[in-house]
Structure formats: structure tokens, C-alpha cells
Amino acid sequence: xxxxxxxxxxxxxxxxxxxxxxxxxxxxxxxxxxxxxxxxxxxxxxxxxxxxxxxxxxxxxxxxxxxxxxxxxxxxxxxxxxxxxxxxxxxxxxxxxxxxxxxxxxxxxxxxxxxxxxxxxxxxxxxxx
Length: 129
What we know:
Elements: E1 11-13, E2 22-33, E3 40-50, E4 54-56, H1 58-66, H2 75-90, E5 94-104, E6 107-116
Antiparallel strand pairs: 1-4, 2-3, 3-5, 5-6
């Protein structure tokens, strides 16, 4: 069992491929480095996705997230890189990455990046009276 950071995202078969359902993952301890100062940046990363054939395996996701700890990255770049890597690994119907960075110099940053598979439509929500 590895306990080293890696960019290898493992997957498993979606157990309910015929159904649209949302998988939400909260990662409260994301860390990368400021590319200008080298100081650590801290964020909470939230993933929301509608799987198609594959789901992400959580241990590999943890090691993937850990791989950013010593890497310099602008908030916008790292958020979009996470989105791109997950889309490549999962080929989901829908995926949203929200990176909510802690304050630095009196400024909070939140970056939201999304992917939608061609032709996929958000199902209409059911409203119960």
C-alpha cells in the first residue's frame, strides 16, 4: 500500500450506470504553494460529479490531492488542472470543482470550474408540495 503522493487517479465501475446521481466529495485540507512567494496556500476543495461508467477511488484521490502540497500553483490553474485530470480519468457526465482558498493578504479566492459531457442535460428537479 503506497503512502506517497501520486498523480495516478484510480477508478472503479459505477454501480448504477443507468441512473444520474450526484457524488459529492469534500476535501478540507488541500495545500499548494504560492508560485510568487513559496508560502503555503490552504483551501477546501469540493467535488460534485455525475458518473458515467467510472467513479474515482478515494484513496487514490487523497494521494493525488497530496501531490500538490509542494507545488507552486495559481489558484485558477490548480483548480482547472484538478478538473482536467478528473475528467480524463472518469469521463463523467458532469463534474464541478470548487476551490475555496483561505484568506491571504485580506483576500479570499473561490474558483469554480465545470465540465459537461456533450449532450448531457441536467435532469429537472422534483418539487414536492
